[in-house]
Every structure is written in structure tokens, then in C-alpha cells.
Design a protein that fits this description.
28% of the residues lie in helices and 25% in strands. With 332 residues, the chain is α+β, with helices and mostly antiparallel strands. A hairpin with a 5-residue loop joins strand 1 and strand 2 (66-68). It is globular, with a radius of gyration of 19 Å. The relative contact order is 0.14. The structure holds 2,5-anhydro-1,6-di-O-phosphono-D-glucitol and manganese (II) ion (MN) (2 copies). Residues 113, 116, 246, 280 line the site of one manganese (II) ion.
Amino acid sequence: MSSSININFEQYLVSTKPKGAAIPVGLQDLLLAVVNTCSTLSHEVAQGALIGLLGSAGSGNVQGEVQQKLDIIANDQLIDGVKGCKSLAGLASEEMELPIAVQGTGDYLLLFDPLDGSSNIDVNVSIGTIFSILKKQDPSARMQTSDFLLSGRHQVAAGYVVYGPQTTMALTLGDGVVMFTLNKETGEFLLIKDAVTISPSTKEFAINMSNMRHWADPVRRYVEECLAGTNGVRDKDFNMRWIASMVADVHRVLSRGGVFMYPWDKRDPKKAGKLRLMYEANPMSFLVEQAGGASINGTQTIMDLKPTGLHERVSVMLGSKEEIDRLKQYHS
Ligand code: AHG
Ligand code: MN
Ligand code: MN
């Protein structure tokens, strides 16, 4: 899959042939609807306080987390943006307990984290939107919640849009990863990178170090060895970054390699992790695998996990292959 740099997203959709076949028109429409909504959201995010977008919404989501105004606005706009898509049977979101039937029947199911990095909205740090598109097993059957509970391997597309100094999208259709940047003057996403790859080795890791005392031994061992640098078994010095927006941390990993971890910890041992499998871990794992990296929960490959609930949480370790292999070995 090779495309010329600077073509816009629409041109890309009609000209690219992932694995040799044109993108079905229904999937093109859906992707375009999602991406056009993200273009509008980017414009609004940039206005912030000027249009009254900051602050808490004074409500909580199904997972007991405080919702920000922008969490709800982004959720509503995405629903609005895709509701006319003929191929979309239904959608599910971090902000809603149950899925919504769009056409009820159709080829695709859409999942999204409308606004990732909620704690960063009010402090003007990069945030984003994450999306995952599943092929519905039986397009003619009426949509049910259980239709969504497919492993990440059933994704036909996944991506994110990060609202940072630039608004950039990473996308996979199962044949590599491409990136587009929004031209804020025209509202068009333009291709900036074809065939994104994550280097197998790295000297950079990302984890919320304040949870160190709660980690399981394999994670603690891995991070302690990184911290020991040239004085330890790794024999190289590591750098650490933690933005606290998964979109921005994963964007860095896709851009220059690295490891991103939000592992299980002892704070709430019954919780598998903090991040959500269906609309955070799976789409990011699809991107990372398609860029030559790896993504595990410690012992298992995330994309192979069979979900049991729409809002299921999972332990996440993803990025440069050699580091993920090492983490897996420490967990075995
Ligand atoms: P969301 O804003 O969609 O709830 O996701 C926030 C997630 C993720 O983006 C980030 O990596 C992590 O929460 C940050 O958690 P800490 O504040 O515990 O570091
Ligand atoms: Mn999130
Ligand atoms: Mn969110």
C-alpha cells in the first residue's frame, strides 16, 4: 500500500487498496464521517474557554468517572456525525453504558473513546479521539450488545486523531499505518506519512511512576532495570515520558519508538487495568502491530483477547518489539 504524500483523506480512501482490494464504499463513508467530525472537534478544542468548552460536566459515566463537558460534546458530535451512514449497524462509546442502534443492521460496528485524556483538557495538553471499526458478523441481523464482543482481530479499521500543536490522525486498514495532518485553513486531512514503522529497539518508556509501589513484580523489575541505565543489566540509559493522554503517548511511540504501559496494579486488584479494551487498547494495538510493534497485557496478545463486556478493562504494554518481548518474558 503506497500513496503519494499530500493527497487528502477522501482521495486516499478512493485510491488506496489495502491488501490489494478497494475499500468498500460503506467503510469509506463511515471513515469519512468520523474524520470530518474530528476535524470539527479539532476546531472547537482549539477555542477552549472562548466557547465555554472547559470544565466538568457535573456528571459521571457508566464507569464512575467524572465527565468533562468536552467528553459529552465530543460523544454527541460523533453520534451526530455518523448517524447518516447507511453501512453502520450500531455504535458504542466510553460515555454510554449501552450501544446505540444506528441503522440496526449493516456491515459495521463503530466503537470510540470520544475524548481521550480528559484530565488534560483544562490544562491545554494534547488530547484526542480513538476509534475502532468492527465487521459485524451477521449484517442482516438486528444489532445487539453481544455483537460488539469480538476480539481486536475483527477490526477492519482503527485510528486516533490527536488534538495537539498539530491535529494528526493515525489510521490502519489492516495493511500498515498512515498518518494525516489537518490543514486548519481548509479543514482537509493531508497524508504526511506512509508506512509508519516502530523501531524494534528503544531507550524510552512511558508509565505513571506514581503507581510504582502498586505494580506487579515483572513490571517493577522491568522499570527498575530501565532506571538503572548503564549501571545495570540493560547497559543503556533510558528516558521517561508520561503525558497522561494515551493518544499522545501512543503517537510518540508510533513516531519515534518507545514503550507505553498502563499495567494492572494492586490499588484495585479486581480491575484488570485502567484502560478499556474495546475502544482504547484494541484500536491502539491494531495500529502498533501494523507498524511492526507489539501489544500485550503481560502474558497475552491484546488483539487475541475475547471480550466479555463492552467496557471491560485491560492491562496494556505496547510499543517497540524487543521491549514488549522482554516484558512478556518477565511475566512468563
Ligand atoms: P479517558 O480520558 O478517556 O478516561 O482516558 C484517560 C486514560 C489515558 O488516556 C491515559 O493514559 C490515562 O488515563 C492516564 O491515567 P493517569 O491519570 O492515572 O496517569
Ligand atoms: Mn481514554
Ligand atoms: Mn475518554
